[in-house]
Amino acid sequence: HLCRCYTSPSVEKYGQTRFLTAEAKVSAGRLNGKMREKTLSMDTLNPQVKAVEYAVRGPIVLKAGEIEKYLEEGGTKPFSEVIKANIGDAHAMGQQPITFLRQVVALCTFPELMDSPSFPEDAKWRALRILQGCGGHSLGSYSASPGVECIRKDIAAYIEQRDEGVPSDWENIYLTTGASDGIMTILRLLVSGKDSSRTGVMIPIPQYPLYSAAISEMDAVQVNYYLDEENCWALDINELYRAYQAAKLHCQPRVICIINPGNPTGQVQSKKCIEEVLHFAYEENLFVMSDEVYQDNVYTPDCQFHSFKKVLYEMGPEYFNSVELASFHSTSKGYTGECGFRGGYMEVINMDPEVKAQLVKLLSVRLCPPLAGQAAMDVIVNPPQPDEHSYKQFHQEKSSVLGALADKAKLTEQILNAVPGIKCNPVQGAMYAFPRIFIPPKAVEEAKALGMQPDMFYCLRLLEETGICVVPGSGFGQKDGTHHFRMTILPSIEKLKVLLGKVRDFHISFLKEYSALE
């Protein structure tokens, strides 16, 4: 039976009259003789939202989208396609998925495939184990807010193996919706105070714009420490002390963020450098946030990834049992490039037990991360072993992806450094180059007259004349008087050669135009 509310005829008629009258007034655009104003306008918008900037998907990317649409509609440009080198989106750039990861996620999503002979047994038992940890044995259920228990245990086992026996407690592991979600969550816990007691967040410059955007949104204080470009973007401990002491005059620095391997700068920090950072954090009582999403992306033979947690452990119990550390990893980077699954995790150690309860409360508000992303994360930390059926294909695919990235890192560095007025540090890791570009004084003046940063002017010209979309260095931060752009090394080797050739030709033409080729 259908149930309907009873409304007396008189009330119903009155309501209709009021509605019709109001409708007529609104259709005329007026109510009580006034134009109705929006409740939410730029004047009433949260000012912290207005302050947020995210260069990776900023104005230059919107312009690239407009040009793409124009070309699709039959418009003509000096180029036939837009090459988007602005974002680390591996699959969008043509990288193929890792077969085993997709097999396990497919089995989890559609368990009827368990009966199919097309799927290997090692993928089936992993999927079965994950499903047994899900409510109703379904990926469509919510998990516990910190994530599926067996996946958290697999991550802890992976960390112990990666760090050569350093203990990892699975209850310190929290699954996240990509690493970004974990980073935002930890910052929310840390930001407090007013005026000179407001939380200061120390971030590297250049930095990944997630950090500056989050700091703006939370109305925290951004404390910049500059990486040493002349020394392959190394982290200088004296610069950390300078930034810290200067910041203490107007805020309370409580946290230091490190991106290793670096984004956008591509450097891999040495063990000695990490020890110095951790000693600094220990001395100044700072919470450490270590963004390690590119830990599998190390290309230079004499570089090695060292996790902050392992180095902290090796510094001895006084450090390992006291320095608060959150480390982040993701499905989006590495050799899998599974950005769309939004999978990730964080390991948080030495957090006050009462604060830890508050962290769990905060995580519970967003219920849980997507279970498909959790399953994908599980495959990354629990890949096929040498004695399993899928190992050979998995190992071939992984080596192929990382080998190609290493070749492209070297190629990018070599071609850019052969261009007059461009200097590119070695791309030791991650998936970006961040070359320094010389912009002639006349071009700088023209950019200022147009009200834009010189490297934004340069990148817009590059886009409009070649179809190449890169991100201006000003979106990541840089020392005054220097200019850069960030480009990803993800395109295929053939497309990357075309891209780099176009950048070379454009830059030489740009210098000639502004009479600065000498």
User: How large is the count of helical segments?
Assistant: 18
CATH C-level of the largest domain: Alpha Beta
Mean pLDDT value: 90
Class of secondary structure makeup: alpha/beta
Give structural notes.
With 518 residues, this protein is an alpha/beta fold. The chain has two domains: 51-92 and 394-515, Aspartate Aminotransferase, domain 1; 103-381, Type I PLP-dependent aspartate aminotransferase-like (Major domain) (Aspartate Aminotransferase, domain 2), CATH 3.40.640. It has helices spanning 9-27, 47-51, 59-72, 99-109, 121-132, 149-162, 178-190, 210-217, 237-247, 271-284, 308-314, 317-320, 353-365, 371-381, 391-417, 441-449, 454-466, 493-513, and strands at residues 83-84, 173-176, 199-205, 221-226, 252-259, 287-291, 325-330, 344-349, 422-423, 432-433, 436-437, 468-469, 471-472, 485-488. The strands form four sheets. It has a seven-stranded mixed β-sheet, sandwiched between helices. Helix 3 (59-72) runs parallel beside helix 17 and helix 4 packs antiparallel against helix 14 (371-381). It is globular, with a radius of gyration of 26 Å. The termini are far apart. The mean pLDDT is 90.
Kindly summarize this structure in a few lines:
The protein is of the alpha/beta class and 518 residues long.
